[in-house]
Design goal:
There is one protein chain. By secondary structure, this protein is of the alpha/beta class. It is built from four helices and three strands. It has a single domain, classed as Metallo-dependent phosphatases (Purple Acid Phosphatase, chain A, domain 2). A three-stranded parallel β-sheet has the order 1-2-3, with helices on one face. Helix 2 runs parallel beside helix 3. The mean pLDDT is about 80.
């Protein structure tokens, strides 16, 4: 649990350091995409489809904010898995938020 608290604190600090103002897009709208129960396991071929679908949705929707609502990862190594999933959003420079679920907490 302490490791997750440390990761959470680091993510918060990184978010504050790179904080972006959330604003309406050129059409006067603000689009939020939510992903839940991704259950990503690093280096597991069964999880490749999760990354493919995340990228499909991000490409199709072009959101202003992405929210991951729990159970992002499902197996060890937890940090590598979490980074892989969140990288899909961060490389696009889309602001995001994460809430942890029970499976996120079970991975050491």
């Amino acid at each position: 649990m302490k490791k997750y608290l440390c990761i959470y604190c680091l993510l918060c600090m990184a978010t504050l350091a790179c904080a972006q103002n959330l604003k309406f897009n050129a059409n006067g709208k603000f689009k939020i995409v939510q992903f839940t129960d991704v259950h990503y396991i690093s280096d597991d071929p069964r999880s490749d489809i999760a990354i493919e679908r995340i990228n499909e949705v991000l490409n199709a929707e072009n959101p202003d904010l992405v929210v991951f609502t729990g159970d992002v990862i499902y197996g060890k190594p937890a940090e590598k898995s979490m980074r892989t999933v969140l990288e899909q959003v961060s490389k696009r420079k889309i602001p995001f938020a994460v809430t942890f679920g029970n499976h996120d907490d079970e991975q050491g």
